[in-house]
Amino acid sequence: MTDRKTISAAGPAPLTRRTALKGMAAAGGLMAAPGFVRYAQAQSSAPIRIGFQCHRTGIGAAYGRWYERTTAAAVKLINEAGGINGRPVEIVIEDDGTDAGRGAEVVAKFANQHKTDIVYGTLFSHVVIGSAPAAGELKIPYYVVSEGYHVASGQLNRWCLQPGITDVRAQVTSMAPWIAANAGKKVTMIYPDYAFGYDHRDYLPPALEKAGAEVVAKIAIPPTESSFTRYFPQIPSSTEVLYHVMVGPAVLTFVKELGEFYGSSGPKLFGFIDSLEAVDINSPGLEYLDGSHFWEGSPRYAQAGDSDAMKAYRAAVGIDDNGASVNDPRDISTAGHMFGCWETLYVIKQAMEASGYRGPEDRAKLVEATEAISTLAEGPEHPQGDKVFDGKIHQVFGHQYISKLEGGRLDVVHKTSIEDSRYEPEADYTAQPF
Amino acid sequence: MNGSARLWLLHAAVVALLVALNFLLPAYHHGLMARILVLATFAMGYNLTFGYGGLLSLGHAMFFAAGLYGAGLGIQHLGLGVPAAFLAGLACGAALALLAGLLALRTTGVAFMIVTLMFSQAFHLAILYFSAFTGGDQGLVLRPQQRRIETALGTLDLTDPTTRYLTALALFAVVLFAMLAIVRSGFGRVLVAIRENEERARMLGYDTFASRLAALVTSGTICAAAGAAYGLLFGYVGANFASVQYSILPLLWVLLGGAATTLGPLFGTVFMYYLIDIASGYTSAYMLAVGVILILLVLFFRKGLLGTLRERWLRWLP
């Protein structure tokens, strides 16, 4: 559903001598007009409009629901604290259906019809990649809360930024030392045979090698697969750790069949919470995961050492100690990712205030101000932890959490350092012209 | 004015109206209409086999994607320029349609539908499988500098909204007039005859297999042209365009606008696109609203918008 409230805003236009003269004449006339004071106030207090490209329907709907709640909570706080540059923030939502084609249309709709200042909030990689050309052509800042390596890889354009959530390459790189030291040295990977899985396939093996471990087998599961038993005999008997990143509804079958295959024995399991976001970890069929470890972007369950900022964040977005909605304990959140929306909005606020953002004419300045950010301190604006932003690759780096599933809940056993996740940048967006 | 002149004038008027819209439409609708024109071209290609040929295919996403990837991969991996990439996309679509047709046209009816669906699914999975070249499910981005055509008169930048709109319109207009010529030609009439009664057409001495194969190859080539244009104009080459959804969409567009009408695909695509665009502004259950409206249309306009118009009032519409 779209927020239908409309605010008129002038689009950017090339500045020539003639337009400058016209503008000066018009400004002079305006200042002489009796209603000028009221007009100026109306301009300065007009809302900052943020177009939220939301996965309300389609495969990303569970994530979209929680991204929307997190966004609403953050914007409420930002507005209560005076907004951005003294102006309230207004979120305009469009559903992209988690479809790349529609995603590009939605970006155009934000820029040309809703006249939003920026576009924000996309998660699924194919939608981000499908929408990025439109953002670049329309010259509208596109702040994604995705996770793929697509932004940092340099394949998008200068208008695309990911300042609120780390990318899979960084996550995988930081997991490897812990896996090698604590789980085992011989790792078999099971991953979906599409791009999300490839980021794991491509970046985990070198990171493990560096940590003194090795990948003994890589098993790609086609996305159409609904039964997995026939793949399990491919797991070498020397395997000490089974690294799994299955995503989608098939994960329940995957775990159940894995349990049936190994019985009470088997290698240690290490997975990514992406598989189980918005899924109750105590669902029937997931018993075999008990005792295994998971990567989490941010812990689903409240932890004993949670900071005040984290407690305040959880309360604001409406999740209980189990990471479920305070209104419905069966409505499990996507806590491992949705903090990225909260933190991205605060980065946008920081960059808009640093650049003195007034309107679409300042969009390039806004991108430059974001690129200039280097560190983000832990606190109410960044409850997941402190971060480092690399302006050249438009990507943020942060801490990662490793949790153990035990007694029906996930408890953090290790928090990686930011340095663990760093890699050599392969791009420089700042060299691209606007 | 004779019937033929009236038809050409009507189609020319539609194209003229679309040219005028280039100057009249606000920015968002201007961009949306450029997409619609490309996808209406896709629908026109589909209409040739479905509307005129009577072949219900669920595999046309494969031809659209063949054009999309033929052009996109040509640019990305072979460094082709835009015109060569467009032709590469066309060639891929034509070759694939010929191959698929040789095998699938041995069947008819439901079997044809299933076989084309299977071919298309295999093609979709092949795109995912060869992800090192195709970008897998994430797809590929064509950079603005890869979407420029250097001519003697200057650079044609396909990222420019006006250039993009007029290029999409040029493709649409060429295919529209080609379709008008095809359906009024002997070949078009033979296709309709085969659709109505294949046995009788065969008894009259027509090679029905050859005619249907020619229709499918032409249709596949048109769909590939639309796919290639989509990639070049909008800069994204993605696997979702090869999914079954993009085989069903042209079917819906054609059904809505009127199967076996030359202008139906345009009306159907515009109608469906704006229905989704407007309905999504009011509810996240917009697909439900779209479904209800589609059911009502099927109940009260069984032959689509233009098909019903032709049946009731304008019998001369092609």
Number of domains of chain B: 1
Distance between the termini of chain A: 32 Å
Class of the largest domain in chain A in CATH?
A: Alpha Beta
Helix content of chain A: 25-40%
Strand order of the largest sheet of chain B: 1-4
Fold-level CATH name of the largest domain in chain A = Rossmann fold
The helix/strand order of chain B is HHHHHHEEEHHHHEHHHH
Low-confidence stretches of chain B: none
Please give the domain count of chain A.
2
- Portion of residues in beta strands of chain A equals 15-25%
Number of helices of chain B: 14
Q: CA-to-CA gap between the ends of chain B?
A: 16 Å
Helix content of chain B: over 70%
Mean pLDDT of chain A: 88
**Largest sheet of chain A, described in full?**
7 strands, mixed
Helix segment tally of chain A: 11
The proportion of strand residues of chain B reads under 5%
Q: What is the residue-averaged pLDDT of chain B?
A: 92
Features:
heterodimer, A: 434 residues, alpha/beta, Rossmann fold, 2 domains, 36% helix, disordered N terminus, B: 318 residues, mainly alpha, two-stranded antiparallel sheet
How would you sum up this structure in a few lines?
Chain A has 11 helices and 17 strands.
What does this protein structure show overall?
The complex is a heterodimer of chains A (434) and B (318). Chain A is of the alpha/beta class and 434 residues long. Chain A has two domains: 17-166 and 339-398, Response regulator (Rossmann fold); 168-296 and 399-421, Response regulator (Rossmann fold, 3-Layer(aba) Sandwich). Chain A contains eleven helices and 17 strands. Chain A has helices at residues 17-32, 36-44, 61-80, 100-114, 125-138, 168-183, 195-210, 251-262, 308-317, 335-355, 363-371; strands at residues 48-54, 89-95, 118-120, 142-143, 160-161, 186-192, 214-221, 241-244, 268-272, 293-296, 324-325, 328-332, 375-376, 387-390, 395-398, 401-406, 409-415. Chain A has a seven-stranded mixed beta sheet. In chain A, strands 2-1-3-4-5 form a five-stranded parallel beta sheet, with helices on both faces. Chain A starts with 16 loop residues before the first helix and ends in a 19-residue tail after the last strand. Chain B has one domain (3-243). Helices cover 74% and strands 4% of the residues of chain B. Chain B contains 14 helices and four strands. Chain B has helices spanning 3-24, 27-52, 60-78, 82-104, 109-129, 131-134, 161-184, 186-196, 198-203, 208-234, 245-257, 264-279, 286-300, 304-312, and strands at 140-141, 148-151, 154-157, 236-237. In chain B, the strands form two sheets. A two-stranded antiparallel sheet of chain B has the order 1-4. The mean pLDDT of chain B is 92. At the A-B interface, α4 and α5 of A face α2, α5 and β1 of B.
